[in-house]
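Suppose a classmate hands you a notebook page containing two proteins, each written out with its sequence and a corresponding row of C-alpha cells. How would you begin to make sense of it? This section walks through that situation. The first entry is reproduced here exactly as it would appear on such a page.
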Amino acid sequence: MEQWNNVELTNMSKKSYTLNHAYNMAEKLNNENATVTSNGNGSDSEPAKEQTESLLLKPGSDVKPKVEPDDVENLLRRLYGITVSDVKEILAYDDRNFLIHEDSNVKNPLIVSHCPHGYVLKIMNSLDSKNEKIVDAQNQVMLYLSKQQIKCPRPIANASGKYYSVEKLNGTAHVVRLLEFVPGQIFREVPITNYLLFQSGEYLAKLDQALKDFSHEAYENHTTTWLLQNVPRVREFLFAVKDQERKELCEEVIEAFESKVLSVVSTLEHQVIHGDFNESNIVVEPAPNQTDHNIKGVIDFGDTSKSPLLFEVGIALTYMMLEAKDLASGGVFLAGFASIKPISSTELGYLKYCVAARLVQSLVLGLYTHSLHPTNDYLLSTQQAGWQLLEKLWRESFDSVDELWSTAGHQYLTQSNK
C-alpha cells in the first residue's frame, strides 16, 4: 500500500457511469435533514437543547459514509468537472477522504486555478452532514486563514459556485466538498525534536492569534462529541473499555475534569480555535539547515469551535507528548506557545486535567469506533502510547508535572538557540 501523510492509501479502480439524480437534489436533501443545527435564537423547528443532542454521537451509531469507488469518480466529474487520473483513499476517522489528481489531458473550465498537487474530496459522516452551517463555517475559516498567510487547504467551488453540496449516497445524505491538497510531510513522519516541539507551540499561538478576530454564527452554539467540554459524555461509551482498571481510571479523570476545569469554564478566555492540532494535522517541510523541520501549515478544521483557548493548548499538548513519547517534552511545546501568547499560572494548573481528559476522550472513542469498524486499525493508532501516557501522568507524575513542564521549557530556552 502507498502511504500519504503516514496514512495508508488504497488504490481505487476506475469505471465511468452517471448517478441517477440531478445536482439540485441538494435542496431536497437539505429538507430531509431538517433537524440540523440550532442557531440559538429559538426559531428552529425543535428546541435548541434537542437539536444540540441530535448532533452528538450516540452509542450504536455508525455514521461513516458508505461509498463505492464509482461514486467518487462520478461526484468529481459531475460536481467539479474533473476527469480523474488517479484516486486514492486516505483512511480517516469517521469521514471518507480521497486524494485525487486531474487528468491533465482533459480541459476543465469549472476550476479556474488548478492545484498542481491535487485535491482532497471530503465526504462527511452522516452526523456532521446534518449541520450545514458548520460546513459553511469551516469553509469560511479556511478562506479567512489563507488571507492571513496561514497555509491550509482552500475549498474549491463546485459547478453551482458553492463550496459544498449535499448528496445522497447509498440512501444517506452526506456533505461533499473539495479542498486543495497541501503537500509536504506531516508531523508524525519526521523526527520529533525539541526544535520542532517549540516551533509547534509558536505556530499554534500564531494560528490562534489569526483566529482571534474570526467569527461565524454557526460557532456560537456549536457542539460535537469531540469538544473537550463534552468529555463527560464519554461515560456513555465506557462499555467499549474492557479492562476494568482502565475503565475506573477513565471515570476518575472525567470526574476530576468536571470538578476542577468545567466548573470554572465560564471564567476562561474563549475564541474560535482549531480544536485538533495533532500529529496528523500538522504539515511540515525541511528547515533551511536540512537537519530539522519547520511547520508549513495545518489541515482538518472538522473540530474547529468557539471554546476556551486553554482547551486548544491542552489538546495540542496531549498529542505533542504522545508523539515525543516523553511527558517532559510538553514543557518545550508550552514554552513555544507562551513565547507568543503567555499562559497564566492559574491556567497552567488546569492543563494536566485537560491533557488527561483528552487522552480519555481519544482512547475511549477510538475503542468504540473500532468496535464498529474492526478492520480500520487507524482508529487504534494511539491506544498503546495513550494508555501509557495517561497512567504515567495520572498515577506517577500528577503532583510534579507542573514543575516538570516548567523546568523542561526553561532548560530549552536557556540551552538552545531555538
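The notebook's second entry, a different protein, reads as follows.
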Amino acid sequence: MEFSGKARQGQQRLLQGAPSAGARAPPPSPARENGQELYECPMCHLVCTDYPILQEHVELHLEECTFLEVERNLTDLELAQHLQNEEDRQRRAAAAKQEREDFQKLQRQYGLDGSGGYKQQSLKNMEKEVAFGRMTPSDYHRRKADMMESLAFGIDDGKTKTSGITEVLCQYYQNECKDIKRVWLSTGVDHFHCSLGDRGWGCGYRNFQMLLSSLLRNSTYEECLKDNSSIPCIPKIQSLIEDAWKEGFDPQGASHFNSRLHGTKAWIGACEIYSLLTSLRIKCQVIDFHQPTGPAGTHPRLLEWVFNYYSADKENSAKVVCTPKPPIYLQHQGHSRTIIGIEERKNKTVCLLMFDPGCPSQEMQKLLKGIDGNSLRLLRRFVGSLKHKQYQLVAIDGVLSAEEKVTRRQASQRFMAQRIS
C-alpha cells in the first residue's frame, strides 16, 4: 500500500505511540460540519461520523502494518528456506511433467499409444500413397481387399516374401569364394520385409515369419505346426502370443503389454518369441550377451556361440554344409534380425550371414539373379559391426514333450535367460 507524505507521518505516530490493537484510545477532538461530529483517520484521512467505526478502521491499519513489519523481519535462514522450498516445488513439478512426456513418447515409440495396429497403419499409408500419386485409386481398393482377406484368414499375403536365397547361397559358396574355408547354412529360409502396415515396428514379427518358414520345411517340427501350416500375418502372430500368455507363459511380459498386442503397434522381442515357440512345443532357449566381450565394445563370444551352434556336426567335412538347423533370432535395442548361417574364413575369422527385415524385397530379389562379393554385403556381419551394448539370441533345438512344455511354462513365471559373460 502506498501512502502520501502526510499519511506516512500519521502511520509513524500510530506505530510509535498509538495503543496496540484491541486497546481503546480516547477519542480525538471531533470536527464539526453542519452540526455533525466528524472523525478523521490519521493514516488515510478517511472521515467518519461514528467514532467506534473509526477505531475499528484504524485497528485494521495496525494489523496490516504489523504483518508488513514481521515480513520485513524474517531471518535470512527463513527466507533461504522459503526460496529453497519454492525451488524444490518447481523442480518436482517440472520433473513430473517431463516424466509424463517421456512416458507418452515411449508409448508412441513402442506402439502402445492406442493409435491402432497393422490394419489402421496399412490403410493410412495406402491413402498417403494415393495422395502422393504413387498408387492409383484402383490399386488402393485392390490392395485393401487383399489385405482384408489376409486378415480374415490370418495368413500373410506373401507380398514382402523372397524365397530361394539360401539355395542360391549354397550354390554360390560351392563354386566361388576363395577366401572362405567353410560355410554353414540353415535349412531354407524365406526373407520377409516390413510393409506399409508394420513399417517402423514390425521387425520382430517378420523375423518370426522367417523362423517359421524354415521350421515348416523341417519334418521334425511337423507335428508342432500342424495347426500353423501357413505363415501367419502379423495380427495373427499377435493373437498367438496373447494365447501363449493366456496359457501362463511369461506373466511379467504379459503385464508389460497389459496382455494385449492385437490391434497395437507394440514392439516384441526375444521373450515374446520364446513364449510363442514354447507354447507350440518347440524347444528353444534365450541366450543373453549382456555386455561386450571384446575390444571396442564388440561381442566375439556371440560369434563363437553361433559358430558352435551351426558346426556341431564335426564329422561333416564339406566346404558348404546345409544343416538341418533352424535360423537364429537376434535381438538388440531397437531392432532384430535373423541369422541364417556363418562363414569360417581362411584368416581364422568368422562372419555371420543375416536376413534383415528392414532390407526391401527389391534388394533381396537381386540376389536371386546372381551373387557376388558386393551383393553379399547385404547379408554379411563381421564382429566389428556388432557393437550394441547387449544382444539376445533365440535358438531352436528340437521339440518339447507335453511334460517338458509344462515345466518350461512354470519356469517362465520368473523368466531367466542364459547369460554369457
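A careful reader of the second entry would note: The CA atoms of residues 109 and 215 lie 31 Å apart.
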